[in-house]
Amino acid sequence: MSRRCELTAKGPLVGHTVSHSNIKTKRRFLPNLCNVTFISDALGKNVRLRVSTNAIKSVDHNGGLDAFLLKARVANLSPRALELKRQIEKKKAAAEPAKQAS
Q: Is the pLDDT of residue 54 over 90?
């Protein structure tokens, strides 16, 4: 399983562990990933994604999964998240003419 956030594309970084005697040893800094269930209001279903804790805060700050995905860049999203974004855009586009007709 990839160690990459599905919403923000955060991945492992490389750096050094520095000892007291200043010896540098290579190490990896892994992102803090969690399996989270988000609720999509537009699609009316629950979606399980593997995201960083930073992404969870960003989703809450932007007003939910739908709003976050509509604002997110395509390059940062995983294929699953990109498919969700397309489905949400399609639902929103279908709902617009119904609102204007009323």
A: yes
